[in-house]
Amino acid sequence: MTDIPAEPATAPADLNRIHSEIARLDAEILDAVNRRLALAQLAARTRVETGAPMVALGGETDVIRRYQDELGPRGSLLALELLRLARPPFSSTYRKR
């Protein structure tokens, strides 16, 4: 993990370096979110195909709690958004035929 300086940037070069690091982190976050969404959708399809409910509410509660414990109240908002993104639209794709 990168050390974050305690003092604000004083030169444009410092600010550019900070913005570059933020952009790099954003790319990592987006990659992780996309991997998470793909895995969550695979889990939902697998649950439906085996006759289980598409959504595992206990698991979702654990996710919300984990994010809230790490990030505080705003963490629960982030967790809820990630869970919402992972839920498939209601379509015949997820119904047993």
From TrEMBL:
SUPFAM superfamilies: Chorismate mutase II
One Pfam family named in its UniProt record: CM_2
GO molecular function: chorismate mutase activity
Domain Chorismate mutase: 20-70
An individual GO BP term: chorismate metabolic process
Name of the protein described by the UniProt record: Chorismate mutase
Organism annotation: Rhodococcus jostii
Taxonomic path: Bacteria, Bacillati, Actinomycetota, Actinomycetes, Mycobacteriales
